[in-house]
């Protein structure tokens, strides 16, 4: 299987440079990458990854790749019969599967060398462009290619499922298929995100399906059993003295052990004193108490996560409008492999009468629509305070935080955007939202709403308009 000839036109090279721009948005800089059907290595050449390996069935293409990209590794091999014994963080199939005789087989071969954290990234042309390519071939404007399958994204999703992969998200990119110049940057950065149906290239990100990962002898050792998993619950607390003890007494036990990390944030009531009292009153419970280093919930969460020792990290808002009794649902979703980022969702079940005002409801639904568009995977409620992920994944988010910067004082968007950039599977966990029983909200509807909108626009610049 070969995705290209040993020599490429300048247009083809420019197109691969353009593809690399979008691949780099999906790749952590420390990732190890395998490209199956790498051709002459022009895509790998422009990828920012710690290790780059390419395989191709064409010996001339492999020889050219070794000469043109000496700092990457290349092997002559058939993707339908992979003999590799190592695994990679990311495997790429770029504009290749339409020329593969058995797509399901190659997906299965890649699955065999994958771990539960491996991500498969596929690019393929939008079938809407098929008449354009056919005309270009007829007029001699395009180099000759072998017969193409012209798979749709639905076809690919189905074949992925048959080979034990789970699609995470699909994104459309590129209206103008040549890298460089004002016109290209203007069209691909600002127009393409608004007209995804007309984009040339579709990016599909998938992860190994959880059922197969749990039953595979090769991968079972990498999955931690729930009863061996430890939990850290970070509880940001500002003017919440009346809810501190209930956070302890109402939370069910989870995993091997559960610890609570209360992070007090400059309260005007006796919240800090109450945290210390509860800590002494429940000596059998693992309780940590600290006062945050800065301002805002985002800072409190980061301070708490820095002190966490558990394998799974949870955020529980101290107002307890998200009932602590619901936390095992999140724990199960992450430890069972249903997702890697469990996001609380208040907008499915009926909520208590005074739990959320109408304008807040409208804002939450609007942000849900915007986020689903930004991330390419469904997120219905972005502002629910309860979010759960593994500590190992959070550490990766923190290590790659420089891409977005410290832009979010609340912490919700920071975690969601960071998780999406790492290709983590995000899943909403519906809960019943309750009325507050103590104190009043720390959220200012108008000023904080405007700030959240500005953060969405900032993130759109980083994720869509690039």
From TrEMBL:
Start and end residues of each Glycosyltransferase 2-like domain: 232-395
Name of protein: Glycosyltransferase
UniProtKB keywords: Glycosyltransferase, Transferase
Claim: Glycosyltransferase is one of the keywords in the record: yes
Domain of life: Bacteria
Annotated ranges, domain Methyltransferase type: 34-122
A GO MF label: glycosyltransferase activity
